[in-house]
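Researcher: Go.
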Amino acid sequence: MNKRLIAAVALPALALGGCGGSSSSSSSSSPSTSTPATSTSAAAAKPPGAPFLASLRTATTIASTVPANGDVNPYGIAVVPATIGSLKAGNLLVSNFNDKANNQGTGTTIVQISPQGKQSLFATVRASALPGSCPGGVGLTTALSILPGGQVIVGSLPTSNGKSATAQLGCLIVLDSSGKPISTISGPNIEGPWDMTSMTQGNVTTLFVSNVLNGGAAEGVNTINNSTVLRIRLRTEAGHPPKVLEEEVVANMIPWRDDPEALAIGPTGVALAQDGTLYLADTLSNRIAAIPQALTRTTPAPGGGSTVSQGGLLKQPLGLTLTPNGNILTTNAGDGNMVETTPEGRQVVAQTADKQTGAGSLFGLLVAPGGKAVFYVDDGENTLRLLH
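Model: Structure:
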């Protein structure tokens, strides 16, 4: 069991890429288990305007996320929008951060899981096979998105031995629809890509990447307020790697620190609302932040943006996505709960999604199509699960 503080990819309401979900609900190729989830809401049904989480009380295991090479610690999660190459529409991709020895920042695999629980290997990403720069090599994070045409982008924050002192700045790795690396995106603005969300308009995809490092792990022995959220615009053309059109830091001065157990604690989950506000899980500050005009702003929002909500039911928020009613859904590092918060900052409900391993287990999450369930990865059990 691992207690890592790493966030999840979010599914913005406008995005086709980034985190997504599947509409099917349960059985697994491995034994499936159901456990009741505890809610702070007493409502038996969810009336109009009720919290999204109010009626979700059962957590069901869909499948193991451990591939044949033994990689563990599932973090990133994304839905496959269309069948192409090795990708099958409606399946989910899950990235692994640790190797079989449980060394952080050394996981190299992305698995593909069907809603019925069938798991297969989508990609093994080896540093020696990368077609471009990626300082430090490969350690796949929660930053995971699927572009139109089936190209997959995944973040890498690598270590040489699983320890924070050896963490390197990494890159974004672009894979084709068969799982082969075709390019990398790196440079001074990409320093420990931790989480990511995306939206596509025509042949332009916009990524929002939270960077947990700035200056490298040696700089983070003490808390430092210099992490960032980076906007990257890409031009996507069939048969060609995406071309970077623009990079803009949309938020800065976000606190982070390295940690012997968590590797790094800093800005994590991101999700884009319909009004252009980017919501951020500021893990170290135990808050949800808002970055206004994220699609168009040309200056960084200091301190990671304005505080939407802080403390209370939030216990080091990690994964972040938006619910069908426009609320903000986060996973806690400090316990096994998901928390629903309104854009005005009111924490409306907490729901237990992991009763057994609890703290440190919840990472990537997304609302399933149809808006009646949540897919999420459970690091404590190394599984893909469904809250319904």
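Model: The first strand starts at residue 34 and ends at 36.
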